[in-house]
What does this fold into?
Amino acid sequence: MTLNEDERIRLHLEEIEKIEIELFLEALIRFYGYDFRNYAFPFLKRRIKHRVQQEHLTSISALQEKVLRDSETMKRLLTDFSINVTEMFRDPSFFNSIRTKVIPIVKNFSEIKIWHVGCSSGEEAYSMAILLYEEGIYEKCRIFATDLNNDILEKAKNATFALDVMQLYTKNYLEAGGKRSFSEYYKAVDEKVIFHSFLRKNIVFAQHNLVTDQSFNEFDIIICRNVFIYFNRNLQNQVHKLLYDSLSLSGFIGLGKREGMKFTNYGNCYREIDASDKLYQKIK
It folds into this structure.
């Protein structure tokens, strides 16, 4: 089959773009230490081209030059690469499954350590704190909430969210098995709400890079939802090893709706607790 001139030009431009992206990612790891080379290519391509447009540039090469010379541009790019889609009690059935299938098993532990991976602005970590409080075990729990992006972590530490999303968050809370009035957990200030400080006292927010950082504790519960979908197969297995090494024997791990253990290198190391909500228990 012979390509016409337009098709040849399109393929040529796509090849140039691919080379530009590869060089761009290499520059990021060499200069800033961030390694995005094993993120899913379509995701990277969309996010990089979005940043090119937002910076009013004409090429990925131009963005590379600007990122290397301007750390503020790098911060904006890092926000683009961060996974910041979240809400309180997101996927309520998942939190209800934690409440009914995991808490009864761990509630008698003397200490419970939980890792929220890719916590973004903190909504799901605070959701877990509320759930643990209602089950009467928050005092002996420690939640480690980590993300790649330091700026989003600073937002998470403030426990301050927009007032106009509280209706959705309240609905999610009730569907997740909430036992009180959701408004008891925050106070409204102007157009924002601030969650009460007792929910924050057992949460540690910290930067952690799944690609380059190592395990830093042994956890009874790990929540890593809607993170793997942005990685290629090699990075998925690398991160699964990290999480496996970080989880205590008989510990629990929760994944996102579109994720699972079946086709990973660690599929036979877990038993399925909830097929719908992708909740697993480590068995070896």
Q: What stands out?
A: The chain has two domains: 5-81, 92-282. Residues 5-31 form the longest helix (27 residues).
